[in-house]
Write a structure and sequence with these properties.
Elements lengths: L1 H39 L2 H41 L2 H22 L1 H9 L1
Keywords: Membrane, Transmembrane, Transmembrane helix
Amino acid sequence: MQRKIIVGLRSLAVGSKWVIGSVAILLTGCGIAWLGIKVTGSQAAFTAWLDTARPWLQLWRLVLYALMAGLWFSRVRGRFLLQLPIRQVRRLELLTLMLFVLIELGAHHHQLFQGAAS
């Protein structure tokens, strides 16, 4: 009976860490947006600045993706292959790739649909 309580508390602790982490990321994003609006003077000026910085921000994301892929193949993948079947590891890789593609599509959503409406 105690084991179930401990497992339940562990799952609660892990869940609360995810919630706290998600809230921290959300607050960080809101803080960066607020600071950007204050520095540029208005929301329109901040949006214009973001539009001019779009290629550099995309380059930054691509560098981060390359860094994560390099670390995955050089350090992490081998450990996963020791613990999981290769099918599960490839599924994880495919889902991660799909996540990156969806992030990029979301980042370009405004630009894609704005060009189609004009």
